[in-house]
Write the structure tokens for this entry.
Amino acid sequence: MTSKITVETCVRAPVAEVWRAYTTPEDIRQWNAASPDWHTTAATVDLREGGAFSSRMEAKDGSMGFDFAGTYTRIVPNQRIDYAFGERSATVEFIDQGDGGVLVRVSFDPENEFPLEQQREGWQAILDNFARHVQARR
């Protein structure tokens, strides 16, 4: 299998606030979309090792949708989330930059259906939405 794809962004907020926005269903519904014509209509989070998560992502015109779901495999509060989804896995790191910013880095196993660059762009767009969401609340 191809090596992991990594995307990252810097969020200007305290790490506890960044963590909370990344792991709270109400927040996830607000930022979890790769483009303005998509949205997350439902999200559940059982934030513990072995706990499940799910986000229902749908095109706003109702033409298509899917569930992004999996199981948390490792949780280090305010630092790291590892999870499995299907046969793939991902790691989210929250790295306090010490200057009022947090580097959020997501590394994930690519899938075989879409080109790697398209996957990278989609995950980066979601992460950029996340950063805008957190910073807009400040």
About this structure: The mean pLDDT is 96. The longest strand covers residues 65-76. The helical segments are 15-23, 25-31, 116-136. The domain at 5-136 is CATH 3.30.530.20 (Alpha-D-Glucose-1,6-Bisphosphate; Chain A, domain 4).
